[in-house]
Design brief:
The chain is an alpha+beta fold. The protein is built from 20 helices and 21 strands.
Length: 504
């Protein structure tokens, strides 16, 4: 595989398929500024910036190098923390961290700096202002063990105000030009001939034809896309993978398209890509995606992986259940079949996927997407946390009557589930019928038997589910929502007397 590491062309063909970018930097290149904190993509100490050519321009995003196979970065520009001051001047993110006293013990600092540098470069290229929300989003996947987030956030906010700090005399091009304007890096990337078979143990097909060939030639290979969950098998359970087939570059699986009647989402579309796509069109979907994992994970993790993983705490399956989505499954021989999301999960970690199948895409009805919908995620932390309760709601209204209702839950059982009795209690009733709402909540209490675990008790989950249904009904009827302590809560919910927190 060929890539550019900082300012050096790398041609490496001897790596195991699962050799991570973190290990490569530290063990093979001696670039020890990148740290290993958790080896699971949770703490951000291993954050890297990775650039890719898009329409002739370099765009950069962050990722967790501890769970990213090095070979997946073929044809990319990898930026480690050592490169930031190579030009003889500190990068604005570094300058701001110095001025704001943002560096504390120093272990997590390189990850914070690269996350802020990525924010700076992306905002500079788009000429957008850097506000607190953008800074918090950028560092949402970076854990400060010294608990000193205030100066780090201040550093992010002041990046555009800091004067250049000379660290050595140099006439080299400043880093910000290398990041977004340097023709040398672009030309080197353009000259790298990407080969889907540039390694015998890590294949990266770019279309369905190459994917079919890779699958038939390597029947024992394991599929990988973002790898944000799969690679934990390697870093946490010490499983060695032989051959990996990376589907993240297959054009047909990256499809994100609005047709005449449906929205098609390819299985290899990342959270961040769907987040950008939905920002204006589907703001409620966008809001949920911003609560999933961290920016580093969202830049790598894929929609198909989230669903195929069959985790009961995954956040996207309830959304797909609410919209009654169809899943297009692709066999290794190229044939396809469609399965509704309601029939996809068979039990804990069990799906309808056959051994020779993978998820190709999801189809969501545009009519259903146009109906009232809300997504509520309850977790102990606002960023980078797993749901205690997840609720996806859709109300179809016809002349003031609820003609169709969907309540889909995650984090409540072994699989994503619907509140069928609660849905039935509201269907056919007036949208402002509070008696019907109370009947639906009673029905929900009778049909749900949530699990208890370290995240929440069964009672908490059930109370929360009932409160969230009431919240959705209130919002449908135009009740304003007040905000305090960073959580959204309705005044009317607080007066009901139902137990349980109502933040979502």
């Amino acid at each position: 595989m060929k890539c550019i590491l900082n300012d050096e062309l790398i041609d490496e063909n001897t790596l195991p398929s699962d050799f991570t970018a973190l290990r490569y930097l530290r063990e093979k290149r001696g670039l020890t500024g990148t740290k290993e904190g958790c080896a699971s993509g949770d703490c951000g100490a291993c954050t890297l910036l990775v650039g890719a050519l898009e329409d002739g321009e370099l765009t950069y995003s962050t990722l967790n190098s501890c769970i990213t196979p090095m070979q997946s970065l073929a044809g990319k520009h990898i930026v480690s923390v050592e490169y930031l001051s190579k030009s003889g001047e500190l990068h604005p993110a570094q300058q701001a961290m110095v001025a704001s006293h943002g560096s504390q013990c120093g272990f997590c600092t390189p990850g914070f700096v690269l996350s802020l540098a990525g924010l700076y470069e992306n905002k500079q290229s788009s000429e957008q202002a850097i506000d607190r929300e953008a800074v918090c989003d950028a560092i949402s996947g970076n854990l400060c063990r010294c608990t000193g987030y205030r100066p780090i956030i201040e550093a992010g906010l002041s990046m555009t105000k800091e004067p250049m700090i000379k660290v050595q005399e140099s006439k080299e091009t400043p880093f910000i030009e290398l990041m977004s304007k340097n023709d040398s890096i672009k030309k080197q990337l353009e000259n790298i001939q990407f080969d889907s078979h540039n390694s015998s143990n890590y294949l990266q097909p770019i279309d369905l034809e190459q994917l079919a060939h890779a699958l038939t030639s390597n029947p024992e290979a394991v599929l990988i896309a973002g790898g944000t969950d799969l690679m934990l098998e390697n870093t946490q359970r010490y499983r060695d993978f032989d051959t990996l087939i990376d589907v993240s570059r297959v054009t047909e699986l990256k499809h994100l398209h609005i047709g005449e009647t449906s929205l098609t989402i390819g299985s290899s579309v990342t959270y961040s890509e769907l987040e950008d796509f939905s920002k204006t069109l589907y703001p409620q979907v966008n809001a949920l995606l911003s609560r999933i994992a961290s920016r580093q994970i969202r830049n790598r993790g894929t929609i198909g992986g989230n669903v195929a993983n069959a985790s009961p705490i995954a956040d996207l399956p309830p959304l797909l259940l609410a919209f009654d989505a169809d899943i297009q499954l692709l066999k290794h021989d190229g044939s396809t079949r469609a399965v509704n999301i309601a029939d996809f999960y068979q039990g804990y970690k069990q799906t309808q996927l056959a051994a020779d199948e993978m998820i190709a895409s999801f189809e969501l009805s545009l009519d259903k997407l146009a109906q009232f919908h809300r997504f509520y995620k309850v977790s102990k932390r606002m960023e980078d946390d797993i749901s205690s309760v997840m609720l996806a709601v859709r109300f179809e209204v016809d002349n003031g009557t609820l003609s169709d209702v969907r309540f889909a839950f995650g984090g409540m059982a072994a699989t994503p589930i619907r509140g069928l009795k609660a849905e039935s209690a509201l269907t056919g009733r007036a949208i402002n019928d509070e008696q019907a709402l109370n009947q639906a909540i009673d029905a929900l209490r009778s049909e749900l038997t949530p699990m208890s675990d370290m995240r929440a008790s069964a009672k908490y989950r059930l109370d929360m589910a009932c409160n969230l249904i009431r919240k959705a009904w209130l919002e449908l009827n135009g009740t304003d929502v007040v905000t305090f302590s960073g959580h959204a809560v309705s005044d009317s919910i607080l007066s009901t007397g139902l137990e349980g927190s109502t933040h979502a």
